[in-house]
């Protein structure tokens, strides 16, 4: 088999695999995971049921492939943000916008797929660290961890931050925010909504926020001002 023929065959196989994944995605979302048979997936993808099993041994593998595809998109764009944007505040804003826009593009489908993933294994929390979903999350959150680490190195963020807590606050807010947007149907307001979510976090972790909001610092500044005013009055009397 020539090299050109091999490339054509690989491309055809990859295209067929993506068609099966797309068919399964739509059926899982609309009909439910347990109600969707591999026969239905095959029919929707325009292939035989045997062809589906050539690519995926069962529906759980298909579900994992669906989630992997969404995470690959999230991770790819997150890495681009880190390469193209250096401002720490702006990085957090863009990462949050990408997170919500990617999920919204498929009507919160990723969230539904993740919920399905958890529901297929009721004991998943006991072995969470061994799951592929945990690996996807680890890959994705590296970008956030890099933003925090580099922000501290640049002096933009406070040293000694609990990175895990900040990360959970950041992505937890986005997850809840996605539900709010879905309920109120305001996809065009994502940028403003993200700003409102990110700003309180930024104010709590940035070095500038630390200086302006520290009571001890404010008290020392006020005392220094009083001393300057007192010295000025004393000088005026002498003159």
Structural account:
It is built from 11 helices and no strands. It is elongated and about 85 Å long. With 239 residues, it is an all-alpha fold. It starts with a helix and ends with a helix. The longest helix is centred in the N-terminal third of the chain and has 29 residues, at 3-31.
Concise structural overview:
The protein is mainly alpha-helical and 239 residues long. The protein is built from 11 helices and no strands. The termini are far apart.
The share of residues in helices is over 70%
Q: Give the tally of β-strands.
A: 0
Averaged pLDDT: 80
| Structure class | mainly alpha
Number of helices: 11
Overall, the morphology is: elongated
Q: Which parts are unreliable, with pLDDT below 50 for 5 consecutive residues or more?
A: none
Map the helices and strands.
Elements: H1 3-31, H2 38-45, H3 49-55, H4 59-84, H5 88-104, H6 109-119, H7 132-154, H8 163-184, H9 190-205, H10 207-213, H11 215-238
